[in-house]
Structures are given as structure tokens and as C-alpha cells.
């Protein structure tokens, strides 16, 4: 069976809501990462067998197969196919899984896994509330969960997780502050420079919809909040449940709404060698998990167990871990179940500080994981993400060289 390897991975900086990337069309923003990936690796894009792109809100500017539209916007030959997939927050991590598994099956020699989400333009929930189209949860599914009180938004799930695992507001804020502090340190030390593709600033005026294009580039994550402490986060109001009713989840211990795109170049080991590339990592193992749809965000707990079992490894073998910071309670509940060395977890901060551009987050985290493994000389990296609907992805990569 062919081995699947990672040749490179890139991302844009994260643009905050209504910020410096808000004026980009999603297909054009994704095209920036596709083009950068082939240009910096001197690869003829005609050789790409497929582009698999994650995107969650596939409507409007992100509808009608945004992956294909991005491929054409990037100037790739029309012969290069593309498809868009949705596994909620793990969409582009699933793109990576499908790309690598396609290589391992012999279906691809060269494939790009990617993701995009311009949340300022196509807001979270847009696909749920399109006029005259109905809601995605049919009567039979709704009836299934009615005895348990019905389906709830993710923010309420995050509150339920905090309650079930005995997490205090201080616990969540401590984690949120640490994410900001680690991300700030990583930025100041230049740890993200190899993975970030600077792009032009394009700002959409919220009232007129006009796009403003100042002569400036964005090459640094816009959501960083220097000087964040537990004390400053303690002043924030709860977002989903009143504090008087036990609410603990705030904007400061939750992921940020973010615009961004990311992409990874994946090949068979044989093809990479034939083309003269030095692969940066190989794929070691993959896993998926499904959990309670109401609690929803606990999937990384069983997904981590499964991917370690499939890889015949333990957490002690893993040098670095990226677990998406959808909410601090998600990471801390996972910690309570797996007891990892937290000095190896999200060492450069995470989505609380750097943002969570939904469909782009999977390949975004992979770029960060890959670069940090190389910087530290680690061997194995584990990446896992919770996903709407009670799902999760997990994978382990092995650094080469």
C-alpha cells in the first residue's frame, strides 16, 4: 500500500469578524492558499489529481462547490477536479483524511486538501435558516431527542460539558488566558511565519457592503489580544447561559468567529521522491467518532482513544497535540479523561486566540502541528477536533527527516 506524505501546508492569517479579510470572496481567498502551495513548491498544478476542500456553510458565496471555484480562481488548469465536503468543524481535517486515504488506496498520486470559511460574509447558521427551505433536523430526528429535552446549540453543549466534568468558570478562564498568552509568544517568536501566506487586506463595509482595499497585507492573526489575563477574562459576561443560572462560557473562553483559508499538499511517497521533494511527514493513523448529539462536543475523547489504538501508540509516545479549542470546556474535559502532559497540548495557543474559521481549521491546525514538530524535533503529532452533530476526527502524523 502506498504511503501518504505531507509535502507542505499553508494558511492565511485568521481575520477577525468584520475585519481585514471580511471583503474577500471565499473562492478567491481559498485560491490564495492553493496558488501559494504550488508556487512555493514549484509544482505544475496540472499534476494535481484532485482538490478536496472543507467548508461548512455551503450557501451563497460558499455554495455551488466552492472548491472547484477556488481551483479556477487560482488559475489552475480546468482539467484539475475539485470537491467540497462538510463534516462541520472538522471539514478540512476530513479533507486531509480523504486525500491521504485516496493516496494510500492508489487513487491519487498528488492531491490538495484544503478548507475555507469567510464567516463575516456567510455567517454561522446560514444554511439552517435559508428562506423556504426548511430546517436540517427532520421530525424523526427531533422526536428521537425530545425525551432528553431536545437538541441544543453548541454553546449550551459547552456549558453542559463544564457542568458534567466539574469545570469552574476560573478553570475555563485560566485556559482561555493561556491560549492567548501562548499564541502571543508564538507570534512574537515568528513560529507561524513559515505557514502563513500573507494576503491583501480587503474590508467589507457592514452597511453598504462595499469592499475597501487599502494598500496593506495581513500576515499576522488578527484575533490576538495582548495582555489577556484570567482577571481580564473574569470581567466578561457569559454568552449562552446567565451567570446567575450557573453560566460559565464566555467569548474569552470560546473560539473566535474568523475568516481564513488553508491547504496541504499530499502525495504518495513514491511520487514525492520521483519529483525530488523531501516529505515533511507521513500519515500514521486515522480515526473517527460519534457521540451523544445533545452533549455533542465530546467526540475527541473516544476519537483519541481509537486513533492511539489504531496506531499502536500511547499518549506518552505523542510529542505534540493539537485539539481544536472550540470551547475551553471541550479541551479540559478531554484532559480529564486522557490525562495528557498539557505542556505538549496546543503549545502555540489555539482557536480561542487564533480563531476558528470552521471549514479551514483542520488544515490550519495541520500546518501549525507540522511546523512545531519540526521546530522541536518531535516525531509524532496528534490532531483531533470536535464537530457539530456529535462527531470527531483524529489523526496521527509522523515527522520525517
Structure write-up:
With 401 residues, the chain is α+β, with helices and mostly antiparallel strands. It contains 12 helices and 14 strands. 32% of the residues lie in helices and 19% in strands. The strands form 3 sheets. Strands 1, 2, 3, 4, 5, 10, 11, 12, 13 and 14 form a 10-stranded mixed sheet that branches. Strands 6-9 form a two-stranded antiparallel sheet. It is globular.
Cα radius of gyration in angstroms: 20 Å
The count of helical stretches stands at 12
Low-confidence stretches: none
Q: H/E series, N to C?
A: EEHEHEHEHHHEEEEHEHEHEHHHEE
The end-to-end span amounts to 21 Å
> Considering DSSP H and I runs of 4 or more, what fraction of the residues is helical?
25-40%
Number of strands: 14
Q: Could you tell me the strand content as a percent range? A: 15-25%
Q: Quick one: biggest sheet? A: 10 strands, mixed
Overall 3D form: globular
Class by SSE composition: alpha+beta
Protein traits:
alpha+beta; two-stranded antiparallel sheet; ten-stranded mixed β-sheet; single chain; 14 strands; 401 residues; 12 helices
Secondary structure: elements and pairs:
Blueprint: E1 4-11, E2 15-16, H1 26-40, E3 50-54, H2 66-73, E4 82-85, H3 91-104, E5 110-118, H4 139-145, H5 154-164, H6 169-188, E6 199-200, E7 203-204, E8 211-212, E9 217-218, H7 230-233, E10 258-268, H8 269-274, E11 281-290, H9 300-311, E12 320-323, H10 328-338, H11 351-354, H12 361-376, E13 380-387, E14 391-399
Helix pairs in contact: 1-2, 3-12, 5-10, 9-10
Amino acid at each position: 500500500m502506498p504511503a501518504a506524505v505531507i509535502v507542505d501546508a499553508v494558511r492565511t492569517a485568521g481575520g477577525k469578524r468584520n475585519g481585514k479579510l471580511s471583503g474577500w470572496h471565499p473562492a478567491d481567498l481559498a485560491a490564495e492558499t492553493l496558488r501559494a502551495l504550488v508556487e512555493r513548491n514549484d509544482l505544475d498544478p496540472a499534476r494535481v489529481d484532485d482538490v478536496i476542500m472543507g467548508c461548512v456553510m455551503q450557501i451563497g458565496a460558499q455554495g455551488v462547490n466552492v472548491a472547484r471555484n477556488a481551483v479556477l480562481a487560482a488559475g489552475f488548469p480546468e482539467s484539475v477536479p475539485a470537491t467540497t465536503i462538510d463534516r462541520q468543524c472538522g471539514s478540512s481535517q476530513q479533507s486531509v483524511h480523504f486525500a491521504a486515504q485516496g493516496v494510500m488506496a492508489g487513487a491519487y498520486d498528488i492531491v490538495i486538501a484544503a478548507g475555507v470559511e469567510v464567516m463575516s460574509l456567510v455567517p454561522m447558521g446560514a444554511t439552517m435558516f435559508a428562506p423556504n427551505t426548511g430546517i436540517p433536523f427532520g421530525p424523526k430526528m427531533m422526536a428521537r431527542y425530545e425525551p432528553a429535552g431536545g437538541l441544543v446549540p453548541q454553546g449550551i453543549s459547552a456549558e453542559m460539558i463544564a457542568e458534567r466534568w466539574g469545570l469552574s468558570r476560573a478553570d475555563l478562564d485560566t485556559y482561555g488566558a493561556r491560549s492567548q498568552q501562548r499564541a502571543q509568544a508564538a507570534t512574537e517568536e515568528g513560529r507561524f511565519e513559515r505557514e502563513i501566506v500573507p494576503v491583501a487586506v480587503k474590508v467589507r463595509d457592514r452597511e453598504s457592503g462595499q469592499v475597501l482595499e487599502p494598500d496593506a497585507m495581513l500576515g499576522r492573526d488578527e484575533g490576538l489580544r495582548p495582555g489577556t489575563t484570567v482577571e481580564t477574562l473574569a470581567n466578561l459576561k457569559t454568552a449562552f447561559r446567565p451567570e446567575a443560572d450557573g453560566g460559565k462560557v464566555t467569548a474569552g473562553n470560546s473560539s473566535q468567529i474568523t475568516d481564513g483559508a488553508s491547504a496541504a499538499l499530499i502525495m504518495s511517497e513514491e511520487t514525492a521522491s520521483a519529483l525530488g521533494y523531501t516529505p515533511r511527514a507521513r500519515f500514521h493513523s486515522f480515526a473517527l467518532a460519534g457521540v451523544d448529539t445533545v452533549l455533542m462536543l465530546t467526540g475527541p475523547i473516544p476519537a483519541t482513544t481509537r486513533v492511539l489504538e489504531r496506531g499502536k501508540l500511547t499518549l506518552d509516545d505523542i510529542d505534540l497535540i493539537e485539539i481544536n479549542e472550540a470551547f475551553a470546556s471541550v479541551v479540559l474535559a478531554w484532559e480529564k479523561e486522557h490525562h495528557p502532559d498539557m505542556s505538549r497540548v496546543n503549545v502555540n495557543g489555539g482557536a480561542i486566540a487564533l480563531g476558528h474559521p470552521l471549514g479551514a481549521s483542520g488544515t490550519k491546525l495541520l500546518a501549525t502541528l507540522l511546523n512545531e514538530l519540526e521546530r522541536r524535533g518531535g516525531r509524532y503529532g496528534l490532531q483531533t477536533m470536535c464537530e457539530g452533530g456529535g462527531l470527531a476526527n483524529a489523526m496521527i502524523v509522523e515527522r520525517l527527516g
